[in-house]
């Protein structure tokens, strides 16, 4: 842990947080912040879309490589595992060398992996390349959260985290739609990976041209000019930027790379007691999307494109849920500031129980309506509310970690990726056998029960979290 991790009682007082007391937190205007956040969200979108875009072509891949369904699911499980490992190893680098150079390097590696996937003719090689694909782009999600922490102070941070989370995780929700549309248009599963390669190069071009360095240990509040070429963005040459640069501006202490930093943060009781319950909800939601894609094809006999259209409700729920949660978190923070004993845990987790109950109700409804082969309308509506509530909890946990570790925001939010992705890998890995043994209704009733019990540690952190020293 670095010196910046003061005990929580001191950190919870906004006026003692960081450099923001002696100078404006960021010189960027609101439109500039929105553009930067959009670029980061677009970059993170590549990560979130790359897993579910594979769902519509699962059967085609299984037919091309004569393999069983359980072996075919390994491509999903492997992706989730490396989606969790990648940020743990690479995100701390962004806190050291800067956000910009790491994002650009990862996008190039991601593009190369997609081109190789589009050309592969061996299933074992497809698995290896899917791991590389996940490992290379997954850190973009936690780096995006780190950028929000660089740009926005605590009071309005919830809205920005909600906006970025909603946009980047929308890929998780509409990935099947994109996969179905591309497959339907080109009549080849390889076209999906060519699409991702083009997307990767497009995002690289935008980030290279317009994404400035935001790391506060390098550029302070964006008024200090980067000294290294890899941190320099072409837009800094514009007169409107040049006028605001000030070499005397303060910067945060420069951290050093430590492979164990992510895990040291993760083992802090308030962190794991919050992230594990959130990850259980996210894992059950991932299973929900996986089950829905399979059942719509096998039992409702939907085409690939029609399956993708069903996921639109999930995409809408993703965006609206994250945006609304961000606004609620900002309001909750302002209310907490008025109290004599300020608690960042109450400010960020006070409504977690409401979102959990919505998730539990959605899991039960989804499981039994799909089990009984009802009309798809209630299933589609349920997916909307499940997505809204599930990704709302991810916004809460991400915002909380940025608040707790402002000097290591990318490292801290990589903990969110580790827990949600590894938990999802575990759930998806046993999903087929669970459904075979318990039916779809029984399986999601079990998930609902786990989610309900897992809410208890989060409520404990919300009430008693300030007693822990970080």
UniProtKB/TrEMBL annotation:
<dbReference type="InterPro" id="IPR020846">
    <property type="entry name" value="MFS_dom"/>
</dbReference>
<comment type="similarity">
    <text>Belongs to the major facilitator superfamily. CAR1 family.</text>
</comment>
<feature type="transmembrane region" description="Helical">
    <location>
        <begin position="444"/>
        <end position="462"/>
    </location>
</feature>
<dbReference type="GO" id="GO:0045121">
    <property type="term" value="C:membrane raft"/>
</dbReference>
<dbReference type="GO" id="GO:0001765">
    <property type="term" value="P:membrane raft assembly"/>
</dbReference>
<keyword id="KW-0472">Membrane</keyword>
<feature type="transmembrane region" description="Helical">
    <location>
        <begin position="350"/>
        <end position="370"/>
    </location>
</feature>
<dbReference type="GO" id="GO:0022857">
    <property type="term" value="F:transmembrane transporter activity"/>
</dbReference>
<dbReference type="GO" id="GO:0055088">
    <property type="term" value="P:lipid homeostasis"/>
</dbReference>
<comment type="function">
    <text>MFS antiporter that does not display functional linkage as drug transporter and performs functions that significantly affect biofilm development and virulence. No substrate for transport has been identified yet, but plays an important role in the growth in the host.</text>
</comment>
<feature type="transmembrane region" description="Helical">
    <location>
        <begin position="414"/>
        <end position="438"/>
    </location>
</feature>
<dbReference type="InterPro" id="IPR036259">
    <property type="entry name" value="MFS_trans_sf"/>
</dbReference>
<keyword id="KW-0813">Transport</keyword>
<feature type="transmembrane region" description="Helical">
    <location>
        <begin position="102"/>
        <end position="119"/>
    </location>
</feature>
<feature type="transmembrane region" description="Helical">
    <location>
        <begin position="125"/>
        <end position="148"/>
    </location>
</feature>
<feature type="transmembrane region" description="Helical">
    <location>
        <begin position="376"/>
        <end position="402"/>
    </location>
</feature>
<feature type="transmembrane region" description="Helical">
    <location>
        <begin position="160"/>
        <end position="179"/>
    </location>
</feature>
<feature type="domain" description="Major facilitator superfamily (MFS) profile">
    <location>
        <begin position="36"/>
        <end position="466"/>
    </location>
</feature>
<feature type="transmembrane region" description="Helical">
    <location>
        <begin position="191"/>
        <end position="211"/>
    </location>
</feature>
<dbReference type="Pfam" id="PF07690">
    <property type="entry name" value="MFS_1"/>
</dbReference>
<feature type="transmembrane region" description="Helical">
    <location>
        <begin position="271"/>
        <end position="293"/>
    </location>
</feature>
<keyword id="KW-0812">Transmembrane</keyword>
<dbReference type="InterPro" id="IPR011701">
    <property type="entry name" value="MFS"/>
</dbReference>
<feature type="transmembrane region" description="Helical">
    <location>
        <begin position="305"/>
        <end position="329"/>
    </location>
</feature>
<feature type="transmembrane region" description="Helical">
    <location>
        <begin position="70"/>
        <end position="90"/>
    </location>
</feature>
<protein>
    <submittedName>
        <fullName>Plasma membrane multidrug transporter of the major facilitator superfamily</fullName>
    </submittedName>
</protein>
<keyword id="KW-1133">Transmembrane helix</keyword>
<dbReference type="GO" id="GO:0005886">
    <property type="term" value="C:plasma membrane"/>
</dbReference>
<feature type="transmembrane region" description="Helical">
    <location>
        <begin position="34"/>
        <end position="58"/>
    </location>
</feature>
């Amino acid at each position: 842990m670095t010196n910046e991790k003061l005990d929580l009682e001191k950190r919870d007082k906004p006026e003692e947080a960081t450099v923001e007391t002696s100078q404006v937190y960021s010189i960027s205007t609101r439109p500039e912040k929105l553009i930067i956040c959009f670029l980061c969200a677009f970059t993170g979108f590549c990560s979130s879309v790359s897993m579910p875009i594979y769902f519509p072509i699962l059967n085609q891949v299984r037919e091309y490589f004569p393999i069983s369904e359980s072996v075919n699911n390994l491509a999903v499980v492997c992706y989730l595992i490396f989606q969790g490992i990648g940020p743990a190893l690479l995100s701390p680098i962004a806190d050291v060398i800067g956000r910009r150079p790491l994002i650009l390097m990862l996008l190039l590696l991601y593009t190369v992996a997609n081109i190789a996937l589009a050309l592969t003719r061996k299933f074992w090689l497809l698995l290896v390349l899917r791991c590389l694909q996940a490992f290379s782009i997954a850190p973009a999600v936690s780096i995006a959260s780190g950028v929000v922490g660089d740009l926005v102070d605590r009071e309005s941070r919830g809205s920005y985290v909600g906006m970025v989370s909603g946009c980047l995780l929308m890929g998780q929700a509409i990935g099947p739609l994109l996969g179905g549309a591309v497959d339907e248009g080109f009549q080849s599963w390889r076209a999906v990976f060519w699409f991702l390669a083009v997307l990767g190069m497009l995002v690289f071009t935008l980030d290279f041209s317009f994404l400035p360095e935001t790391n506060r240990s390098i550029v302070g509040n964006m008024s200090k000019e980067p000294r290294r070429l890899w941190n320099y963005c072409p837009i800094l040459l514009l007169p409107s930027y040049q006028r605001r640069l000030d070499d005397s501006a303060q910067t945060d202490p420069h951290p050093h790379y430590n492979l164990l930093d992510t895990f040291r943060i993760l083992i802090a009781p308030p962190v794991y007691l919050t992230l594990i319950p959130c990850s259980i909800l996210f894992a059950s939601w991932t299973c929900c999307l996986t089950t829905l894609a399979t059942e719509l094809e096998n039992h409702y006999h939907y085409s690939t494109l029609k399956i993708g259209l069903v996921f639109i409700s999930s995409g809408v729920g993703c965006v609206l849920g994250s945006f609304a949660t961000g606004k609620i978190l900002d309001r909750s923070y302002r209310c907490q500031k008025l109290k004599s004993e300020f608690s960042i845990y109450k400010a960020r987790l006070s409504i977690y129980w409401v979102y959990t109950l919505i998730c539990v109700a959605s899991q039960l409804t989804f499981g039994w309506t799909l089990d009984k082969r009802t009309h798809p309308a209630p299933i589609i509506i349920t997916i909307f509310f499940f997505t809204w509530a599930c990704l709302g909890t991810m916004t809460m946990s991400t915002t909380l970690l940025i608040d707790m570790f402002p000097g290591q925001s990318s490292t801290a939010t990589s903990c969110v990726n580790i827990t949600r992705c590894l938990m999802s890998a575990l759930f998806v890995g046993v999903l087929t056998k669970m459904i075979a043994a318990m039916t779809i209704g029984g399986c999601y009733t079990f998930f609902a029960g786990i989610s309900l019990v897992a809410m208890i540690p989060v409520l404990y952190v919300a009430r008693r979290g300030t007693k822990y020293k970080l």
